[in-house]
Amino acid sequence: MSEVRYTDQHEWIRLEGEEATVGITKYAAESLGDVVFVELPASGKAVTAGGTVTSANSALEKEPSKVNEDPEGEGWFFKLKLSDKSEFAKLMDKDAYAKFVDSL
Asked: What's the CA gap between 59 and 104, in Å, rounded?
């Protein structure tokens, strides 16, 4: 079973077992407008999301528009192994994120 949490930087993180998938929210994608370029982190790179990148969505290099079309699905950016799963629990759940967006 997977669980999704959100950051105040409009990123979503879906945890499935030991691996987390990271992307930007629909709100962020709409705010950015048409995405025409995506720079992805390399595997093995430590990221501020609190883990190490295990893979990146190379499909975005050829079709960055997937970020706009399906930001919380096929438009994901990278997967990572979390260094501290307890940090994941501190992120906003769907309802808290919706309230956060409404307050903007």
From this structure: 32
